[in-house]
Specification:
alpha/beta, eight-stranded parallel β-barrel, 42% helix, 15% strand
């Protein structure tokens, strides 16, 4: 299994760099997507986050359209849209519009977390008491706007555009809730192991054991998110990865900041406890190093998870180094030669 060729995709948070602007982030996102298309990546997903200075992909549907308009063949989608933040009809219309503009290229990945902190959740949802338990009903309503035969749409309401379009829906998660639901509905499942790796294997077991074939999918399909930073040497990759580590350090400290340049010594910035949380827990599902190191680590992840696809994310400060990392990954895993 470790030697099999696996599909590769990219998860982009449109990082805003220290000293940079969201406009620059969007230019970098388009540039990376265009290169990813050339390098044979399967899909290019953008994630919904709010109230984070270092993440520019908050208006996820808008940036998906921008990326799709500036590429030709690569699939573009959400990894994901946080459905409890939105009316299902609005998401059906937005992605119906995207699918109508870029037929056969749009993915709709859905999550049930807020993707932000409490103040922003209050600003988005008004009702902050939602705990995600209504997600199955919201999902049924959304799917019913695309396929009225499912019977869950609001009476007398139709999604135009949206109705009748075949838009692949993925469930995303970091726990067993979405894993089990995806299995029961026969939908593909993506696990957020790039920041919450501890429940990865139990969630995949839940998904596979509860899977029921559907019109969307005959057998389980798993995508695993991994932090991948590749460079010519292990030392350079580890150095580049300190930008990402600083970002996660801010998260656990309750701060929001732009992506910072790499540093030579993270031990000057964090405590041993913080280091254990960031490096030993949150970023545990990572492949950081030279091409040989990355290949070895990803092969082990594939062997352990049986994943059908890997979606790589890389919070790298220097755009050229980020491009090189994804090119090396594609070459390492046999996407390009």
């Amino acid at each position: 299994m470790a030697d099999r060729k696996v599909k590769l995709s990219i998860l982009d948070l449109a990082p805003v760099l220290e000293g940079g602007t969201p406009a620059e982030s969007f230019r970098n996102t388009v540039d990376l997507a265009q290169h990813a298309e050339q390098w044979g990546y399967q899909r290019y997903w953008l994630a919904e986050h709010h109230n984070m200075q270092g993440v520019a992909s908050s208006a996820t549907s808008v940036i998906i359209g921008h990326v799709a308009a500036n590429t030709r063949t690569i699939r573009v989608g959400s990894g994901g849209i946080m459905l409890p933040n939105h009316a299902p009809l609005v998401i059906a219309e937005q992605f119906g519009t995207l699918e109508s503009l870029f037929p056969g290229r749009i993915d709709l990945g859905l999550g049930r977390a807020p993707g932000t902190d409490q103040p922003a959740t209050r600003a988005i949802r008004r009702n902050v008491y939602s705990d995600g338990s209504e997600f199955p009903e919201q999902l049924l309503e959304l799917r019913s706007y695309l396929n009225p035969a499912l019977g869950g749409a609001a009476p007398g309401v139709r999604a135009v555009p949206g109705e009748g379009l075949d838009i692949p829906i993925w469930l995303l998660g970091s726990s067993g809730f979405s894993a089990q639901l995806a299995g029961q509905l026969g939908l593909p499942f993506a696990f957020a192991s790039h920041f919450a790796p501890d429940y990865l294997l139990p969630a995949l077991e839940l998904y596979r054991s509860h899977f029921r074939p559907s019109s969307s999918l005959e057998k389980p399909y798993v995508m695993v998110a991994v932090n991948v930073i590749a460079a010519p040497t292990d030392d350079e990759a580890i150095w580049l990865a300190t930008s990402q580590e600083q970002q996660f350090l801010n998260v656990i400290r309750g701060r929001s900041g732009k992506l910072k340049p790499p540093v030579d010594n993270m031990d000057q910035l964090w405590s041993e406890q913080e280091k254990a949380v960031v490096r030993g827990n949150m970023l545990k599902c990572s492949a950081i190093g030279s091409p040989d190191t990355v290949r070895s680590k990803l092969s082990a992840i594939l062997e352990e998870t049986g994943a059908d696809e890997l979606i790589a994310t890389a919070q790298v400060y220097d755009h050229k180094a980020r491009l090189r990392s994804f090119e090396l990954l594609a070459k390492t895993m046999g996407q390009v030669h």
